[in-house]
Structure formats: structure tokens, C-alpha cells
Amino acid sequence: MKYKIFKKKKNYYKKNECAIINIYENDKIKKNILKYNLILKEIKKYNFKGKINTHLIIKDINSVKKEDCILIGCGKKKKINKNIFLKIIKNSFKIIKKYNYKNIIYFLNKIKIKKKIYWKIFNIIKIFKKKTYLFDKFKNKKNNKYKDIKINFLVKNKREYILTKKAIKKSLIIFKGIKISKNLCNTPPNICNSTYIYKKINNKIRHPKIKISCLDKKKMSSLGMNAYLSVNKGSYNKPLMIQIKYNNNKNMKPIVIIGKGVTFDTGGISLKTSQNMYKMKYDMSGAASIYGIIYIISKLNIKINLIGILACAENMINGNSNKPGDIIKTLSKKNIEIINTDAEGRLILCDVLTYVEKYDPKFVIDIATLTGSCAIALGNKINGLLSNNKKLSSCLIKSSLEIEENIHELPLFSQYKKYLKSNIADIKNCSNTIYGGTIIAACFLSYFTKKYKWAHIDIAGTAYNNNGSTGQPINIIVQFLINYIKKKWKKII
Ligand code: BES
Ligand code: MN
Ligand code: ZN
Q: Do the strands 150-154 and 103-106 form a parallel or antiparallel pair, or are they unpaired?
């Protein structure tokens, strides 16, 4: 799909085989709408009312084949709002798809909602990208129906032209970042291991201000990151802690973002059931989101000091695996009793959270498919959020609202730390109760984040669905970081 801007009002039919025209319920159609009489005739003939989710196709409008006009019902003019706008766009996509149109022009000006041009373009591209996403690397027969579709937006003046152009450019960068992150998540676990991720990042992420490095098993071992390493003990694949440093602002302390990158989670000796286990290839979604975020932030050349860490490992089983009952010494020197080897994400994260203290970060955000409980509590459309800093969490929530994506804060009550008391070690890696799993997991992490402001995002419910990876929560974090740099949150956090 290509996105273009159309400046002239006349002659768009020469270039476009189909025009999308918004018709309001019971509205008087203005004369300046193209082919006024013909449209009126057709509307009368078919008794088209302009109700929401309806449409009318007028074929061969210039008596020329393949020059059609789609009238899209927009409902009552007074009731139009952003949600109806999104419905209209989704409806138009269905029609484009069904009738296989290739050159389409939109008249967005006609839809008057209290949103900026950027919002409209961003959301249109978001809908189209979501609907046309295809992961066909492993299909012998490629069938990309949408490749050569051209979407045009009609603008009425220079100002609109510039704003639309900028909006398209920025949105395309954002959705490219989301796409490459989704592709990585969808890649099967026999291919997508830590080393593969490291290579991918080196290929795809390039910027004069970016430095990519990694800590291997030897290095982590010498530092004392035994909790992290213990997760990978049963695997033939190597663990790798990948670091992407993007310093495009010398005047600020770094913001650190960390992603859980378990390329496959069998559960270890505390083995998962086989039903749905194949979905545990998505247990690296947090790390993949860091990849997408840094891709976007660097392509947009945002003036920020950002460190991304992809904590990659594989939770497998062999004679060397972690066992329930094992006690390991973390980088923080705290000893952890492993009650359940399936609570591996926190073992990896706790060492990384300790490791990043050395950066004296402005704040730290970790993103992880950490607990099944989060999916149970919040379902698959709402990200979980827990934080030791109220301002940080509220800024994340505000950013999510701006782009209509969901994140909901759960309380990090230290009360629940009692469930992590161990008889023989400093703490256990999980509790004996199944209740409050997301909060207890965050309580576990909170032992290792005392030195800085921190937010934890649990994406176990949102990172993937039956169609594959979703790219959550990339948009939220990107929006948040851009807001931060625009000084929107700078004074607060
Ligand atoms: N990767 C899983 C969490 C998960 C579960 C993500 C379902 C997506 C869908 C994590 O490593 C895990 O297994 N967590 C356990 C923790 C428990 C043993 C305390 C869980 O949620 O069951
Ligand atoms: Mn697990
Ligand atoms: Zn896991």
C-alpha cells in the first residue's frame, strides 16, 4: 500500500478508479461534490440513507470503466465523532478489499471531527496496516493482495498538504517499526533465538548515534548475573543480553527500557501443559517491542538518550535445568529460592534491573509477558501497569489515551511481598497462591528497582492473539517518549 496526496480537486478520476465520498444521514449534498446530479439520482434510486456501516457503489461514473464512486454512510452529522470516523474508515477498507480497488481517493476534509490531520492519517494508516499485515516468509505461495494499492488523500491548501505529508511520513515510520517487531515475534522459535535476534538488530537498526553491544554467558557469569543465566541452563541456545544505546541528547540522563526476551518458554521442569505451549514463542514479545521502539525513535531522530535492553534466553529442559527448590544468587546478592521454574521472566529481569543501576537512569520501564494472571485480570486488549512512581505511571496512561490504546494500573501494594517470604533464602521467585499473580510478580521485581523510578508493563494478555503478534505496547511507549522530549512530562518525572 502506498499513501499519496492529491492536490487538485479536478481530474482525480483520471488518476483514481474509486473515490470514497462521505454521506451523512438526511444531509443535503453540496453541489461541489463530484458528479452532483448523477450521485443524487443514484441516492434516490437506491434510497440510500447514509446510515453508518452502509454504502452505495456507483459504477463507471464517467461512463468510463473502472471509475467508481463509493458513498459511505456516516450517520447523523451531529453525532460524528472519532469512533465513528474509525468505523467509516474500517467500512471503506472492507469495500476496497471486496471489490479489489487499487487507486482510491479519500476526502477527509468532509469528516469534521475535533482531531488534527495527524490523528486522522495516523489512525487510517494504523487500520490499513493492521488489516493488511502479512507474515508469509514460510509460505511457498506468496499472495499479497494489497501490495499495489494506492491511497490518496485530497488536500485543499498548502498548509494541509504539508501537515498531511508529515503525518504520512511519521506514521509510516511508526508502523514499519511495529511491523518489524511483529515479524520478529512471529518467527518460529527454532529460528528466532537470542543470536538470531542479535543479528536482526544489527541488520535493521542503524543510526550514527546508535551503539549495539551484548553481554554473553561468560561476561554475565563474571558479573554475577546468575539468576538470568540459570533460566538458560537447560538450553542448547545461548543467552544474550543485547544492549542498544541511542544517545541523541548529551544533556540528559538515560531512560532505560528493558524487554523480556524468552525465545521459548517450556516452563522448565515445572513444565507447561502442551495445549497452547507453541504460543510461548511469543515470550520474547517484550524484547521485540524494544527493537520496534528504538527503530522508530531513531528513524524519527528524536533527541533523547535511550538505552534499550533485550534480555534474551530460552527456558528449556535438560539435566542441567533449574529445579524447583534450587537457590541462586542474583547480581544484587539476594538469594532466590526457585519455587517454580516457570516463573523465569522475573529471574531474568531481576538481574537486568540490577545491572542498569550503573546507568543512573532517569527512569526505567520494563516490558514483559510476565504473568498469565495479567491476561486473566485484564483480557487481551489492556496492558497491565505497575510502578513505584505515581507520576511516571500517570504519564504512561495519559500517553495511551492520546492514541486510544489501553494500559491499566494495578496496585503495587507491598503487603503482597509477604507471599514471597522464603524459609531458607532471602525471597522466593513466586508465591504458593494463584491469586494476584501479576501484583506478586511486580512485588518480586520491586525488590530490585529501589534505586530509581520504575514502571513495569505486563503484556502477557496483549502481546499476541490468534492472528499472531500485535505489536503492543510499542505505540504507547513511543508516544510517551515523544511527549517526554516535547517537555510535556519533563517537568513532572
Ligand atoms: N511467559 C509466562 C507468562 C505467560 C502466560 C505469558 C500465558 C503469556 C501467556 C511466564 O513465564 C509464566 O509462565 N508465568 C507463570 C508464573 C507462575 C508460575 C507464578 C504464570 O503466569 O503461570
Ligand atoms: Mn514461564
Ligand atoms: Zn515466560
A: parallel
- Measure the CA–CA gap between 474 and 493, rounded to whole angstroms: 20
Number of Cβ atoms within 10 Å of the Cβ of 317: 17
How far apart (Å, rounded) are the C-alpha atoms in residues 190 and 173?
29
Query: What contacts 314, CB < 8 A, 6 or more positions away?
Result: 189, 193, 194, 231, 232, 235, 237, 239, 262, 263, 264
What residues are neighbours of ligand 2 (ion), with CB under 5 Å? 265, 342, 344
Ligand 1 midpoint to CA 423 (Å): 24
Instruction: Considering the candidates 272, 279, 391, 488, report the single residue annotated as catalytic.
Output: 272
User: What does residue 449 show for φ and ψ, rounded to 5 degrees?
Assistant: -125, 30
Task: Provide the whole-model pTM.
Answer: 0.96
pLDDT tens-digit profile, the chain (493 residues)? 999 999 876 666 666 788 898 999 988 777 766 677 788 888 989 999 999 999 999 987 766 566 788 999 999 999 999 999 999 999 999 999 999 999 999 988 888 899 999 999 999 999 999 999 999 999 999 998 898 999 999 999 999 999 999 999 999 999 999 999 999 999 999 999 999 999 999 999 999 999 999 999 999 999 999 999 999 999 999 999 999 999 999 999 999 999 999 999 999 999 999 999 999 999 999 999 999 999 999 999 999 999 999 999 999 999 999 999 999 999 999 999 999 999 999 999 999 999 999 999 999 999 999 999 999 999 999 999 999 999 999 999 999 999 999 999 999 999 999 999 999 999 999 999 999 999 999 999 999 999 999 999 999 999 999 999 999 999 999 999 999 999 889 889 9
As for ligand 1, residues whose beta carbon falls within 6 Å of it are: 265, 283, 340, 342-345, 369-373, 375, 430, 437, 460
Q: What is the DSSP string of 183-210?
A: HHHHS-TTT-SHHHHHHHHHHH---TTE
Cell 499513501 belongs to 3
Three-state secondary-structure class, residue 471: coil
Strand pairing of 382-387 and 464-465? unpaired
Report the C-alpha gap between 105 and 153 in whole angstroms. Answer: 6
If DSSP codes are grouped into helix, strand and coil, which group holds residue 262?
A: strand
Contacts of 78 (CB under 8 A, 6+ apart): none
Assigned C-alpha cell, 328: 541462586
- How far, in Å, is the centroid of ligand 3 from the Cα of 264? 8
Complete edge-to-edge strand list for the sheet that includes strand 103-106: 2-6, 150-154, 103-106, 18-23, 68-73, 55-58
Distance from Cα 342 to the centre of ligand 2, integer Å: 4
**d(C-alpha 480, C-alpha 476), whole Å:** 6
